[in-house]
Write a structure and sequence with these properties.
The chain is an all-alpha fold and 103 residues long. 86% of the residues lie in helices and 0% in strands. The chain has three helices and no strands. The two termini are 14 Å apart.
């Protein structure tokens, strides 16, 4: 096992014990989904010129919140499953390779 693989195995052994969907959801929502949703709304209003709504109306707010929820669910679940499966696959691959070398 290379030092980089050893470092990853040590990291993921601890990280997988502490994995929390709540923490992942919060971090992904704050750092990715909310800014992306705001950016999409501002680009839609100012650059594309979608003037269906005034800049602030309750129907615009409802549309924004609906889009925010959809974007959040897709990004949170997508990134969570992708991250978890990638790291688990890599972790078990390294461990299998190491046990085959020992036998």
């Amino acid at each position: 096992m290379t030092p980089k693989e050893k470092q990853f195995v040590d990291y993921w052994t601890e990280k997988r014990k502490k994995w929390s969907w709540r923490k992942h959801s919060y971090q992904t929502f704050i750092t990715v989904a909310l800014p992306l949703s705001i950016l999409i709304d501002l680009v839609n209003y100012f650059i594309i010129g979608d003037t269906e709504y005034d800049f602030f109306t309750f129907s615009h707010l409802g549309t924004f919140i609906f889009n925010l929820i959809i974007i959040s669910v897709v990004i949170i679940f997508g990134s969570g499953f992708a991250n978890w499966n990638y790291n688990e696959g890599r972790y078990w691959s390294i461990l299998r390779k190491n046990t085959n070398k020992l036998q």
